Amino acid sequence: MARCPWAGTDPEYVRYHDEEWGVPVHDERRLFELLILEGAQAGLSWRTILHKRATYRAAFADFDAARVARFGARDVRRLLADPGIVRNRLKIAAAIDSARAYEALRREPGGADRFLWSFVGGAPLRNRWTSLQQVPAATDASRAMSKALLARGFRFVGPTICYAFMQAVGMVNDHLVDCPRHRAIARLA
């Protein structure tokens, strides 16, 4: 398989590329998980976060936003002591604040799914990149998403993080055109 070059040879990373990355996601718990994990990844590699994902799920109540929104000082101390996650106080506080904002968003008509997907008109954008150098770090859509999320109280949701989130949840198909996943994902939309 001529995968996107970023997939490399790490089995977990290859599995992520082949089975998850770019597949359209509408499950609100999964959307929340990926939004928080992309924020945790800021300044680090996605590989680092991917290898910590199981621990993140356990530490953050399986990404149940309502439960995370109720986390308090004791939970913050617990998370700061957990070697299985990125123990950055700002990122942990941001995840809790973002859970509260996410819960408010879920109560709006259409919920978080509709709101988040509105930045791509409700359907995946199909890019036709032939090299990794063509893939942008941010777009007008990710900048608009970032601005809207920040205004609603989310944190660690800059334009680059939002674009990585959009790629992960299939809002954009950024598999290279010669990667078999490009065509497979296009058929899902």
Q: Could you tell me the mean pLDDT?
A: 97
The tally of helices reads 10
Strand content: under 5%
Strand arrangement in the largest pleated sheet: 1-2
What is the rounded Rg?
16 Å
For the sheet with most strands, the description reads:
2 strands, parallel
Amount of helix: 55-70%
Shape designation: globular
**Gap from first CA to last CA:** 22 Å
How many strand elements? Answer: 2
Derived from helix and strand composition plus strand pairing, the structural class reads mainly alpha
Model regions low in confidence, pLDDT < 50 over at least 5 residues: none
Q: How are helices and strands ordered from N to C?
A: HHHHHHHEHHEH
Explain how this protein is built.
- The chain is mainly alpha-helical and 189 residues long.
- The chain is 56% helix and 2% strand.
- It is built from 10 helices and 2 strands; from the N terminus they run αααααααβααβα.
- It has helices at 11-19, 28-41, 46-59, 65-69, 73-80, 89-106, 111-117, 140-151, 159-168, 180-188, and strands spanning 125-126, 172-173.
Indicate the topology.
Layout: H1 11-19, H2 28-41, H3 46-59, H4 65-69, H5 73-80, H6 89-106, H7 111-117, E1 125-126, H8 140-151, H9 159-168, E2 172-173, H10 180-188
Parallel strand pairs: 1-2
